[in-house]
Amino acid sequence: MGVEGIGASVLRKEDRRFTTGKGRYVDDIKLQGMTHAHFVRSPHGHAKVKGIDSSAALKMPGVVAVLTGQQIVDDKVGNLICGWAVHSKDGTPMKMGAWPAMAPEVVRFVGQAVAVVIAETKNQARDAAEAVEVTYEELPAVTNVKASIATGAPQLHPEAPNNIVYDWALGDEAATNDAFSKAANVVKMDLVNNRLAPNAMEPRAAIAQYDEAEEHFTLYTTSQNPHVARLVLSAFYNIAPENKLRVIAPDVGGGFGSKIFIYPEEMVALWASKKVNRPVKWTGDRTEAFLTDAHGRDHVSHAEMAFDKDNKILGLRVKTHANFGAYMSLFSSSVPTYLYATLLSGQYNIPAIYAEVMGVYTNTSPVDAYRGAGRPEASYLVERMMETAARQLKVDPAELRSKNFIRQFPHQTPVIMAYDIGDFQASLDAAMKSIDYAGFPARKAKAKSEGKLRGIGLSCYIEACGIAPSKAVGSLGAGVGLWESAEIRVNPVGTIEVLTGSHSHGQGHETTFCQLVAERLGVPVSQVSILHGDTDKVQFGMGTYGSRSLAVGGSAIVKALEKVEAKAKKIAAHQLEASESDIVIENGEFKVTGTDKSIALPMVALAAYTAHNLPDGMEPGLKESAFYDPSNFTFPAGTYICEIEVDPGTGKTEFVNFVAADDFGRLINPMIVEGQVHGGLTQGIGQALLEGAVYDSNGQLITASFMDYAMPRADDVPSYKLQHTTTLCPGNPLGVKGCGEAGAIGASAAVINAITDAIGNNHLDMPATPDKVWHAIRAGA
Amino acid sequence: MTAISLTVNGKVVSGNVEDRTLLVQFLRDHLNLTGTHVGCDTSQCGACVVHVDGRAVKSCTTLVGQVDGASVTTIEGLSHGDELHPMQAAFRDNHGLQCGYCTPGMIMSAVDIVQRHGGKLDEATVRHELEGNICRCTGYHNIVKSVLDAAGRMSTAQAAE
C-alpha cells in the first residue's frame, strides 16, 4: 500500500471546506430573480378538499402566485410513481393509489400539500400561505396496519380494496410446514419494528430555474441520485425531456435513504418556475421534514422458528404487516419484500423459510428506504429470535448461533440470496474476545451486588449490499438497472478528473475514490478531483444507497482506470521505444522493466493530447469510461455485542461496552469505514432506545420536531470498540463489500437482547424507553 | 424595519431589517455567510451556533435586534487566514465530520466548551456539554475525540502565548 493508496487512512479532502463554513448546500445558493415557495399543507390525516380560496393571499405583499393541486393536474404533470413492481401471491400486481404532487380532491396524511404560494421572500410566502383558505371535509383516518385491514376501516384509495397494496410471499410453504412438523422445539414471537424519521440534518430543499429561450430547466436538489431524479422527472412526470433538464445535487447534508426519492416539492418547484418564469426556491423546515420525508421501518411481525433435538434450525415462518403510509413512495414496494424477506436466513443454515408480507395503506407519511431498508427489520427479527430461542432452549446464545452458522460458501439460502463468502465464526470470536464474553457472569454478579441489572446481547447480522445486479433486480420487478458508471479524464498536464454516478452526502467519496487512482497510477490524491452530482457533467449514474458506492461505483472506476492504464502503457512504450509488455507503473512513472528508462504520467498525457507521436492508428486523448454491473450482491456480515446496565429504580439503560466486529472485505480507507460504522451503530441504538414516529388515531404526527422525537445525542451513546475481520468479496475487482448500513442493521437487536437479558423479561418492544423498561421489569417480576 | 449595527468576524456591518429577522437569517441572507446552518428551527440541533461576544448562541432563535452592537463570530471567522483554528484542525484530523452540515455549529459549540472548561475536559463532560448539538452521521465517537484532541491543542497554544 502506498501512503495514499488502498488501505491508507487518508484525511478527507472535503473537510477543509466543511470545517470552514465553505460547503455549498442547496439552501446556500441564490439565483438572480429568485422567488420563494411555501406550501399549504393539510392539517388533517384524511379529508376531502372542498375548496381553496386564494384571494386574500394573492393581495398580500410580495406574492407572485398561488398554485393549487387542480392546476398541476390540469397541466398534466404526472402522478408520483413507485418504480418497483411487486406482485401478490395470487399473481395480481400491487394496487397503487394515485398520488398527485399536490392534492386536488383528497388529502391522506397530515402535511400533504394542497397548494403553494410563490413570493418575493421566504417570510412573505409563509405569511401568505397562512392566508390561503382551504375548506376540508374531514374523513375518518386510520394509522395502524392491523386496524387498517380490519372490516369497516376507513378506505384510502379506490384502487386498493381493504387498504391492501399486496399480499406477497417468498419461500416454500409446504417445505416449511413439513420442517415444523418434525420440530423438537418451536420458538414463537411477536415483534414490532418501530417507525423512524430519517432526519438528515440538512432539510430537503430545491431550486428550479426555467430558461425560456432554451425551454430548459435546471434543478438544484438535495438528492442522493440526481440522474435517477432526472430520469423520473422526464419519463414519468412530464416536466421536460432529459436533454432539457439538468439536475444538480451539490453538497448534500446527509441522506440515509430519505433523499433517494423524488418528492412533490421539487416537481412543484420545476412546474412553478415555468409558470412564474422565475427561479423558485423551496427549503423545508424540520417539521416539514418530519411530515413529508419518507419514514422508515414500521413492521408488525409474527415469527416462528423450528429446531431439532440438537438445536439445529429446521425452519422459519414469518408473517409481516408493513405500513406503507398513505402513498407508495419511489422504491417502497421493494423494502419489506426483496430487501427484507431475502435476508431472513441471517447467518444461519435454515433449510426452509416461508415469509408472507402484507403491504398496507394508512393515513401516515409514506414509508420507504431508510438506512438498511428491510435488512434491519430482517436482522432484528432473526437475532431476537435466536436470543429468545437460546433462552428457551437453555443454551448459550453464542453457542446456539455458532452451531447454526453457514460455513460453506457459496451458500444458496431458501430466500433467493446466494451468499458468496464469509466467516461468521471469525467475527463472533473477535467480538466475544473484545468484550470479554467469558468474564460477563462475574461482572453481572458484581453489578447485582450494587443494585444494578446488567445484561449482554448479541447480534450476528448479515446484509445484502452492493446494490445491485441489474438482471437479478429486473427479474424481481425493479424498473431500473443498478449498475454504475465512471469516466477518467487524464488532463494534458497529468491531473485527473474522475466522474462518477455515485453521490457523496457524507461518505467521503472525494477521498476514497482518489485513493483508487493513487493506487493504480501512483498519482498523489491532491492531483485528482472527483466530479459527481451534476447530470451535465456525469453522463449517467444510479447514485448512492444500499452501501453500493464503492462495490459498484468504485468497481466502475477501476474498470475505467484499467482502460486508461492500457492506453497509457501503449503510449509510454511507443515513446520509450520499448515493448508494451515491459512497461510497469511505479510512483506515477511508466518504466521499462529492468532498465532506467521511464516517462512520467504527465508526459504520457501530454503526448496523448499533442498527438505528435502516437502509435499508428491510435486516437488522441487519454479519457476512458466504463459501466460496471455487479454479478451478485455483496454480503457484509459481523457480530455486535452490547453490555448494558439498567437501573431498576428508573428503568434507564446505560452502556457499559459496545463491540462491533465487521467483515466488509477489503478496506480502502479504514478511517472512513470506521466513521460509517459509528454512525450506523448510533442510528441502530437510536431505534432501540429513543426514536419512534408516533401518530395519534386521527393521523396527527405527535413527534414532529426535535423537541418531541428523541434523536440520539452525544451522551446517549458510548464510544465504540471496533474490530475488522476479512474475507475478500470475490464478486468485484476491489474485494469490497460496503459498510454504510451495517451499524444500523445490526445494533438494535444487540441492545434489546442485552436489556431483556438484564431485566429477565423478553416482552419488550423498541424504543426501550426508561418508562417501558421500568414497566417490563415489574411485569416480569 | 429596524436599523442595526454589529461586528461580524471583525467587520462592522449595518442594515435595515424587518423586526422579526433572526440572526441566522441576517448572517445567511444579508451577509451571505452561509456556513451557519439551520437544522431544526427549535433551538435543539445546534447547526446554527455562533459566538456572540465570545459565548456560544443559537442564531436560529436569536433576533438580530437582540445582538445590536455585539460582536459576532461565525465559522467563517474562526480560522486565521489559511491556518485552521485548532478545533477545525482536530475535526479534520479525527474524522469528526461526515456530511458537514452540523459541523460549523458543532465546532463553534466545541470551542466554547473548551474555553469554559479549560484543560479539565473528559469524555463524559464533552458528551454532556454537546447535548445541544445533534449529528446524524458520526455517532459522536469521532466528534468527542476531536474535542478532546483540540482541548489539548488549545491549551498548548495558550501556554505558548
> Major sheet of chain A: order of its strands?
3-5-1-12-9-10-11
Spans of chain A of at least 5 consecutive residues whose pLDDT stays below 50 are none
Head-to-tail CA distance between termini of chain B: 45 Å
Shape of chain B: globular
Q: Structural class, from secondary structure content of chain B?
A: alpha+beta
* CATH-assigned homologous superfamily of the largest domain in chain B: Beta-grasp domain
Q: Can you tell me the number of structural domains of chain A?
A: 4
Radius of gyration of chain B, CA atoms, in whole angstroms: 16 Å
CATH architecture of the largest domain in chain B: Roll
Mean pLDDT of chain B: 96
According to DSSP, the number of beta strands of chain B is 5
Fraction of residues in H or I helices of chain A: 25-40%
Q: In percent, how helical is the residue content of chain B? A: 25-40%
Description:
The complex is a heterodimer of chains A (781) and B (161). Chain A is 29% helix and 23% strand. With 781 residues, chain A is an alpha+beta fold. Chain A has 4 domains: 31-139 and 202-253 and 259-292, Aldehyde oxidase/xanthine dehydrogenase, a/b hammerhead (Aldehyde Oxidoreductase, domain 3); 141-193 and 296-395, 2-Layer Sandwich (Aldehyde Oxidoreductase, domain 4), CATH 3.30.365; 420-465 and 633-781, Aldehyde Oxidoreductase, domain 4; 483-628, Aldehyde oxidase/xanthine dehydrogenase, molybdopterin binding domain (Aldehyde Oxidoreductase, domain 4, 2-Layer Sandwich). In chain A, strand 26 (637-646) and strand 27 form a beta hairpin. Chain A is globular and about 85 Å long. The relative contact order of chain A is 0.12. Chain B has 5 helices and 5 strands. Chain B has helices at residues 23-30, 86-93, 103-117, 123-129, 141-160; strands at 2-8, 11-17, 49-52, 55-58, 71-73. By secondary structure, chain B is of the alpha+beta class. Chain B has 2 domains: 2-77, Beta-grasp domain (Ubiquitin-like (UB roll)), CATH 3.10.20; 86-160, DNA polymerase, domain 1. At the A-B interface, helix 1 and helix 18 of A face helix 2, helix 3, helix 4 and helix 5 of B.
